[in-house]
Amino acid sequence: MGKFSSFALAVAAASAVAAQTFQRLGACPDLGCVLPPDQSDFLPGQYFDLRLEVHAPVNGSEAFNDGKPDEKFFVTITKEGGETKSIAEFFDVEEPELEKWDFKWYEDLFAQDANAPSIVNVASKIYRKLAIYEPGNYAVTLSYYGEQKTTANWVVRPLATKKRAKNIILFIGDGMTTNMITAARLLGHKSINGKYQSLLQMDQFPVVGHQMTHSIDSFITDSANSASALYTGHKSTVNAMGVYVDSSANFFDDPKVETIVELLKRTWDSAWGAVSTAAISDATPIALSGHSRSRYAYGSLVDQGLNSVTNYSWTSHGGPDVWFGGGAEQFVAGDGSYEGKNYYEEFAKAGYEVSLNKTSLLELGNSSKALGIFCQSHFPVWLDRNVYIENLESFKNDPLDSEKAALDLPGLKEMTLKAVDILHHRGGDKGFFLMSEGASIDKQMHALDYDRALGDLLELDDTVRATITHLKEIGELENTLVLVTADHGHGFDVYGGVDTKYLSEQETDRKKRRAVGTYELAGLSQYTVPAEGVSYGTGPNFPVNWDPRYTLAQGFSGNPDHRENFRVHKSPRKVVSSTPGHSKSDLYVDAKDAPDGFVVNGTLSVTESAGVHSLTDVAVFAMGPCQELFGGVYGNIDIFYKMASCLGLARPDNKPGGDPSTGCKSKKH
Fold it and tell me: Is residue 67's pLDDT more than 90?
């Protein structure tokens, strides 16, 4: 049995609490780690890897056993009411080889300031591509250092073998909260005496629920592991997708979990696709197929998108039938692409039609797989593509030439409707799964550019409206579960109205603040009131005037220092910048941003340049087959299990599903 140092004994009880800002390894409070950890859920038949780690801290408050990890650890699994077996026996697999490495971490901010990391030596094993087919409760127990044990309690969800929905379309408004939806409604829809004359399409869905967005080791999530929770039913760590993060240095050896499109392809051979106004390698779209602890391994993740996981035996998702978005840097041969390859050519060799602008997108046929990469990085937002179009010339984002602007850009609606046509044709009776993301709701909220964020939210809603109409036209609406949700939220809200003319003409910040009207002084929305000489031609459900005198008083709870005048920014916003004579990471209000506004003090570190995500639950709107499953309040992982149940993916074996209309009739082999 190992021994604690005398100092460690004195502080051991406090160490778990002290390790709050930083953690030795997420979901592993003990020196023995089981990944997937305690409280994990599984779909019957879902593939996963099992990683075991035993830690031996060399120094710091947890220093133990002279830094020598127990290499003779062992692990068992017990089904409730059943016999305890070794992992190798239970899953009928060979015992893997022992792995060893070390890593370092900071116990708290004081240790980081002192540059005093704690070193940890590790002994580990990983069992790959396992599955549990019988629903129930399971206990996985890791035994190490003599009497020490770490137990992970797992739940395997009920079987569901019949495909109740032929298709699923999952719309994700990245970062979209109910407060933002409310604000967007106020901008785009006229009200008379407090009664709206029209509504968002989301408002008209028959079922509304709410999902909690916590990640596995923090109550504030990011877009990678929150998307992963939606697609796999497993929580993860910030920046990770399709894996539980282990302590090794390799970005691609962490224990994986199977995603919904991998399961769908393996079970029903259905078509699938992703559409986004972000780079296609960005967290939300790439997490459908990606397995890595780092969302920033863009080139490798694009290769996984085409070729599936190749470094270990794993499910092949067959490549997306439709992939539309930005992110040309990962496709043009060079530093940004995987192994320097030209991924336009790699996709073309794999049988894809490749589109690089709106014109060629609309000319695509429906029978072939399609790749559409329309710009570098993320799309210019709806407001710049439709109202302040002169801004497009300033972007150096052509998908082939970094010195030119991409001017022939599709919107989310055009990409989504084309994706539906291709998936409908290619999926046939086997159906399809489509994820469509309004990405810059989040990105512009980070920038505190609220009008641009709400413009993209209105674009998402307009896309949902058009998609429902199109599903009716092609006879698929009754066969399709349509979901609209978010991956996380921001601390945004509207708290009044602003007389921007009065604000601009006052000389001091304190006088400028008098322009903000609350309660009865908030007034009414002017965004739907026509103004002489103002016409954008953007159609119904969007503001007729983006720059009225009386605007919304809106703001953030987690933001950097900035200046606010509450008017639309006619070019993309930058709220802070470095100041000569100060550290580049010491950020101050940008002098060029909203110069006639007043300063709003930040609530974050002075090194932060953007607003941050918040704890808030986010809404889930549902219509179609299985819509009744989505009411109430539940965790983000439950959206996966509800979708998987509706698609008949909870299987008693690893055999293909057979006839999608009748479900699987086979028994466990």
Answer: yes
Residues with Cβ within 8 Å of 502's Cβ and at least 6 positions away in sequence, in order, are 514, 515
Provide the pairing of β-strand 598-600 with 562-564: antiparallel
Residue 587 near residue 578 (C-beta atoms within 8 A): yes
For CA atoms 414, 415, 420, 426, give the dihedral sign: positive
Q: What is the pLDDT of residues 179-189, one digit of tens each?
A: 999 999 999 99
Higher-confidence position of 176 and 660: 176
Residue 582 is predicted with a pLDDT of 87
Q: What is the mean pLDDT of residues 436-440?
A: 98
What H or E segment, with its residue span, contains residue 14? Answer: helix 6-18
Residue with tokens 């089981």: 34
CA dist list (Å): 60 to 27, 70, 105, 144, 486? 20, 19, 10, 21, 40
Q: Is 308 exposed, middle or buried (0-12, 13-18, 19+ CB in 10 A)?
A: middle
CA 418 distance to own-chain centroid: 23
Per residue in 307-341, pLDDT (tens digit) is: 999 989 999 999 999 999 999 999 999 999 999 99
DSSP element (H, E) containing 208? strand 207-212
User: Which residue, among 530, 531, 515, has the nearest Cα to 567 in the 3D structure?
Assistant: 515
How many percent of the chain have pLDDT more than 70?
96
DSSP secondary structure letter of residue 204? G
Q: Is the dihedral of CA 440, 446, 452, 454 positive or negative?
A: positive
Query: Phi/psi of residue 270, each to 5°?
Result: -80, 165
Cβ atoms of 625 and 168 within 8 Å: the answer is: no
Q: 164: left (phi > 0), else alpha (psi -120 to 50), else beta? A: alpha
Stated length of the chain:
669
Position with higher pLDDT, 561 vs 14: 561
Q: What is the pLDDT of residue 20?
A: 72
Distance, CA of 527 to CA of 446 (rounded, Å): 23
pLDDT digits (tens, 9 = 90+) for 381-403: 999 999 999 999 999 999 998 88
The answer to whether residues 460 and 173 touch, using CB atoms and an 8 Å cutoff, is yes
- On whether the CB atoms of residues 431 and 660 are closer than 8 A, the answer is yes
Model confidence at 9: pLDDT above 50: no
Q: Look up residue 139 and give its amino acid.
A: A
Sheet hosting strand 32-35, strand order edge to edge: 32-35, 48-57, 118-130, 99-105
Alpha helices in 174-259 (DSSP H): 178-188, 223-232
Short-list 455, 415, 361, 441, CA closest to 169: 415
Provide the 3-class DSSP secondary structure of residue 619.
strand
> What's the start-to-end Cα distance of the chain, in Å?
42
pTM for the whole structure: 0.95
Query: Under a CB-based contact definition with an 8 Å cutoff, are residues 316 and 310 in contact?
Result: no
Q: Is there a cis peptide before residue 320, judged by omega within 30 degrees of 0?
A: no
Q: Which residues contact 511 (CB under 8 A, 6 or more apart)?
A: none
Q: CA nearest 574: which of 556, 594, 554, 557?
A: 594
Q: How confident is the model at residue 658 (pLDDT cuts 50, 70, 90)?
A: confident
Residues of the chain by 3-state class (helix, strand, coil), percent to 5: 30, 25, 45
Give the Cα separation of 289 and 299 in Å (integer): 13
Confirm if 328 and 376 have CB atoms less than 8 A apart. Answer: yes
Residues with catalytic annotation? 223
Q: What is the DSSP letter of 381?
A: P
Give the SS3 label for residue 265: helix
Which pLDDT band holds residue 21 (cuts at 50, 70, 90)? confident
Q: Is the peptide bond before 660 cis (omega within 30 degrees of 0)?
A: no
Q: Is the pLDDT of residue 369 over 90?
A: yes
- The C-alpha atoms of residue 534 and residue 65 are separated, in whole angstroms, by 74
